[in-house]
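Teaching note: in complex prediction, the entire set of molecules is handled at once rather than each chain in isolation. The prompt given to students was simply: 'Predict the structure of this complex.' The entities are:
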Amino acid sequence: MSTNPWLTAQQAQLIVCHECHKVCQLNNEHSETQLRCPRCHSPLHSRYPNSLAKTWALTLTSLILFIPANTYPITKIAFFGNGQADTIMSGVIALAKAGMIPIAAVVFIASIAVPLLKLLGLTILLLSIQFKWSLSPQQRTLMYRMIEWIGRWSMLDLFVIATLVALVRMGNLATIEAGVGAGAFGGVVVMTMFAAMTFDPRLIWDNASPQKESSID
Amino acid sequence: MDTLTACHECDLLVPIQPLPLGCKARCPRCGYTLYENTPHNVEKNLAICLSAIILFIPAISLPLLSMRMLGQSQHDTVLAGIYVLFTHDLWWTALLISFCSIIAPFVKLILLTYVLIGITRKKTRFRHFLAFRGYQKLDTWSMLEVYMLGILVSMIKLLELAELHFGLGLACFIGLLLAVILVRVTLNKHQVWSLLEQYRVN
Ligand SMILES: [Zn+2]
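The expected output is the structure of the full assembly:
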């Protein structure tokens, strides 16, 4: 085995099982598509197949869905017969005007800032790999971890809607109904979560490692 | 091969070294947690899983909050929220919410209980391996803590408009959430995989 401290599993003809973390030998008799982990039997891939193409497709889909999610109403509130439809942004503004600044901030961060930053972050990661930008791999890995961890919290607004529609059903007094925007918004959250899952973080390091190796020799 | 591991996030090969209790081994290149030596008590984990399963039914079917306004009152349960969304023809949103708040967390608990029972009996089969893979796959889709934040946000939104009361379901929901978090924090996945391999019978 080489003494090079930055040797990767791929360079050593090894594959680490993504499910159970067992290190497996890559033998040349089988093509990579047929390989399965001897311990847990999940498919083995040195890098996720078509990771970049899939992540691009999911990122672009969620970018497109982001438009109806923000322009169509996500809730329709009726008080004593007076109806009012709210988009995500107008809901945040209404909360802020009512003096509930901390809640407005939480909803704004979860429903607008996080999805946008996630889409921006994924695009930067994809472009940096595609065009071999020399951005720090440590910082890009950190960005990837943030994107992966924070994704689920964007579901917040949908859980708020589910709670409100069940609670505020007061006949003619007051009702809250969910709007079409909620469906599109759910699509954005799910698509960005899938995008983070199909992105292979090892690609960040694949074109970053050669520099490091030469400095050791 | 068992003396080596490769980092999940950067593919670096790292030799496995014995760790002092309570320590984590991190990737020297990217900082990802490679493996850890945390005390993992299988029986204790199994007990928490079982209590979480028992809490599940009341947590989703009993009232979380109830609201009173000009003589009328209405209460909210996890199931009612999903039902109302279905009746408003938002079946996709309803499906998504039921998957993240009921199906994923519940199936996860059942699968983990099954795996841990296999380990305590020192007999594991291929289906235990499949079950643990399923558990790991469902991990990101179980969103009880996000739901809890959603309940808090709705509460604050309605506080000025109406009189709100906590329901028994909310206490069960909080108990369930604590149990699920405790399981997630104390479970040592690497150890479960090696125990599954150690006790394999076929
Ligand atoms: Zn690493």
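Point out the following to students. DSSP finds eight helices and five strands in chain A. Residues B 7, 9-10, 12, 27, 29-30, 32 surround zinc ion (CB under 6 Å).
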